[in-house]
Write a structure and sequence with these properties.
253 residues, alpha/beta, Rossmann fold, DNA polymerase, domain 1, 2 domains, 45% helix, 11% strand, globular, CbbY-like
Length: 253
């Protein structure tokens, strides 16, 4: 039986990555740092999972002669970036990706639990959910976030933590991801993965996902099928997920 859907956040629930990029750039400017991350450059940096880890990587690779002093400023830089990200998000730039709200509501109404497994920090998740579910009926039963896992994706830690908190077997859930590292992380935790390619993962190979699509699709606005399992009418629904999952379990038996 399909008991849970586990979602990544950045690029999967919402196209948040460019807001993170803009937040970093505003923090750099406010702190007098002569840095600017273009969209193309940020796409490369996104191969490093986690905002703090991304910043460390950038400093070590491009400013190694000042690395010690700059690393000491990391909490200041990241905290300011988080503040600017929040301001950008609240200005209207943090809506859910196509099909996400519909599928979340179907799962909630159909008795399938919802979870988040992400490398982003908890305040960013809370903001996303508060802006998109303003009635206070936050639908996610479990949130595994940021620094709660010893290792970032592609290690399985964060997905394994979400599965543990749900109290289920990995075979009873489906993970949703947008990146190559995220797919590897979910697979390593024993979860089948449905990939929805995002703005910043267009160049990623989505190997290992049982299905890859442009987004979850909406009635009258079907998604683009990329590889693997094909969804009826170009829309990922709870009923279709249950049908696939039941067949997957039979095949694994």
């Amino acid at each position: 039986m399909l008991k849970a859907l586990i979602f990544d956040v950045d690029g999967t629930l919402a196209e948040t990555e460019d807001l993170h990029r803009q937040g970093f750039n505003r923090a750099f400017q406010a702190l007098g740092l002569p840095w600017h991350w273009s969209p193309d450059f940020y796409a490369e940096l996104l191969k490093v999972m986690g905002g703090k880890e991304r910043l460390v990587h950038y400093i070590e690779r491009f400013h190694s002669e000042e690395a010690q002093a700059l690393k000491a400023r990391m909490p200041e830089i990241h905290d300011l970036k988080t503040r600017f990200y929040g301001e950008l998000a609240q200005s209207g730039g943090l809506s859910l990706r196509p099909g996400v709200r519909r599928l979340v509501e179907q799962a909630r109404d159909g008795g399938v639990r919802l979870a988040v497994a992400t490398t982003t920090s908890r305040p960013n998740i809370d903001l996303l959910l508060r802006l998109n579910f303003p009635d206070g009926a936050q639908p996610f039963a479990v949130i595994a976030a940021g620094d709660e896992a010893a290792q970032k994706k592609p290690a399985p830690d964060i997905f394994a933590l979400a599965v543990h908190r749900l109290g289920i077997d990995p075979s009873e859930a489906i993970a949703f991801e947008d990146s190559a590292a995220g797919i590897r992380s979910a697979l390593a935790a024993g979860l089948p993965v449905l990939a929805t390619r995002s703005r910043y993962t267009k160049s990623h190979r989505l190997d290992g996902a049982f299905s890859a699509v442009s987004d979850l699709g909406e009635p009258g606005a079907p998604h683009e099928h990329l590889q693997g399992h094909v969804w009826p009418d170009g829309v990922v629904t709870l009923d279709a997920l249950r049908t696939w999952h039941a067949g997957h379990l039979r095949g694994a038996a």
